[in-house]
Amino acid sequence: MNKVTLIGAGGKMGLRLTHNLSGSDYNVSYVEISPAGIEKLREKGVKVTAPGDCVPESDMVILAVPDVALEKVSAGIIPMMKKGSMVLTLDPAAALAGKLFRRKDVSYFVTHPCHPSIFNWEPDQEAMKDHFGGLKAKQAIVCSLMQGTDDDYARGEQLARTFYAPVWRAHRITVEQMGMLEPALVETLASTCVYVIREGLEEILKKGVPPDAARDFLLGHLRIQMAVLFNELPGAVFSDAANKALQRGLKEFIKEDWKKVFEPGNIMEQIRAIT
Q: pLDDT tens digits for the chain (275 residues)?
């Protein structure tokens, strides 16, 4: 069960998967229709195959395409797959939105990288600079079996560990739980908060604070704040003054009903917006 087809092999995410799959034990075919993507694969010495020549014989097919394209792409690819094969997607949005072409005789596996933790430690600078993961820095991944057996889950996780490598642990969760993590937690909430922090830095620079001083001060404090809040320093707490500033900030610019972003209906609205 090692014949794999990667759809969208020359795209942003596809190229990352191609990097790891090309040196693996899997027998991989690479599908790409974009001229720019085909050229990038050619530069890496990767030959492109037509989907009709590889999908029908594949045990597993990875759809590494943008969320907005998954409905159309899956409708063209999944009907060609053989009975008992597996389709893998790299994001839960299309699955939760009902955008994937459905068949009862194939299994569906959804997986997403956690990316290297901000508390990750790596032995060399090259690995430390692998912020995205999939090259040198270890990362965790989340996996969900949308349809299939435990054996299907095992082979899906094994393949995911290969194309997201180096992986230090995999978490098995539901597709619905993955939707709570992304987009709700890490995009709608966390990205927004971090964006506002970055905008705050820009405001400070406009007021004349030297850029290097402001950046060093902010990033250093973010590290210790995150370490305290996420219990990387057991027993450590904010000072009384810091806590007072925190409470003031919560009242000043955080809406009391912000947790609604995790309600099922709200999550589906977020997913429909990105698919």
A: 699 999 999 999 999 999 999 989 999 999 999 999 999 999 999 999 999 999 999 999 999 999 999 999 999 999 999 999 999 999 999 999 999 999 999 999 999 999 999 999 898 999 999 999 999 999 999 999 999 999 999 999 999 999 999 999 999 999 999 999 999 999 999 999 999 999 999 999 999 999 999 999 999 999 999 999 999 999 999 999 999 999 999 999 999 999 999 999 999 999 999 88
CATH for the stretch 3-173: 3.40.50.720
| Chain position carrying tokens 């922090």 | 197
Q: In the β-sheet with 27-31, what is the strand arrangement from edge to edge?
A: 27-31, 3-7, 60-63, 86-89, 107-113, 139-147, 167-172
Indicate yes or no: pTM above 0.90. yes
